[in-house]
Design brief:
Elements: H1 15-19, E1 25-29, H2 35-43, E2 48-53, H3 56-68, E3 74-78, H4 81-88, E4 94-100, H5 118-124, E5 128-138, H6 141-153, E6 158-165, H7 177-184, E7 190-196
Parallel strand pairs: 1-2, 1-4, 2-3, 4-5
Antiparallel strand pairs: 5-7, 6-7
């Protein structure tokens, strides 16, 4: 077990060895139960999918779903996102990063815990293929406002930025568990898509 003040270390990940092919790779950060990623894997057999989450309890459901369907193009791993991306994910290796409904940490004293920061965007950018995408969703209006400021602070990295409300930009028929829950409660859902310059 890792001591809470230690940073986890990861070995470099070679996607071609992990999946046995050189297909494009989509990566979900905070994949939760894996509902979204499993459906993407079913509908896109020519793409590989990798999901990470800090909490393995829910992720096991995604693993079970994938195993029942015998999907060869999906992997799940319990990992801390920043350390894993820094250590394990090669530059220019990911076609799309999915970041959906990460914890908004609404209390001011907790906001340093937010995953979506300028530092994090600058970590993701070089790991994208040319023209690669970052897909983002949140139900928290204040967090989305902060996200937009972060995106603006890294504007030189992106060829195009799209924003919508209540309209998923990528794969509009495929929803995460939170997305379905929050939409049923009538919450506004905020989306953004960044395209690598």
């Amino acid at each position: 077990m890792v001591h809470p003040f230690e940073v986890e270390k990861y070995l470099p990940l070679v996607f071609s060895k992990c999946f046995g092919n050189t297909h494009p790779v989509e990566f979900e950060i905070g994949c939760g139960k894996g509902k979204f990623l499993v459906r993407r894997a079913i509908e896109n057999p020519g793409t590989n999918f990798f999901g990470i989450d800090r909490v393995s309890k829910f992720m096991k459901l995604g693993k079970t779903r994938a195993e029942k369907r015998e999907l060869p193009n999906i992997r799940f791993l319990r990992a801390e996102a920043k350390a894993f991306l820094t250590d394990a994910v090669a530059l220019g290796s990911v076609s799309i990063f999915h970041i959906y409904f990460s914890d908004p940490w609404p209390k001011r004293r907790h906001q340093t815990r937010r995953v979506f920061t300028e530092e994090f965007l600058r970590l993701l950018h070089p790991r994208l293929v040319p023209g690669g995408l970052i897909e983002i969703a949140t139900d928290d209006k204040d967090y989305f406002a902060a996200m937009k400021k972060t995106i603006a602070a890294t504007a030189e990295l992106w060829e195009n930025v799209r924003e919508t409300v209540n309209e998923r930009i990528l794969d509009s028929m495929n929803k995460t568990s939170y997305e379905i829950k929050w939409a049923a409660e009538g919450r506004h859902l905020y989306y953004a898509e960044l395209k690598k310059r």
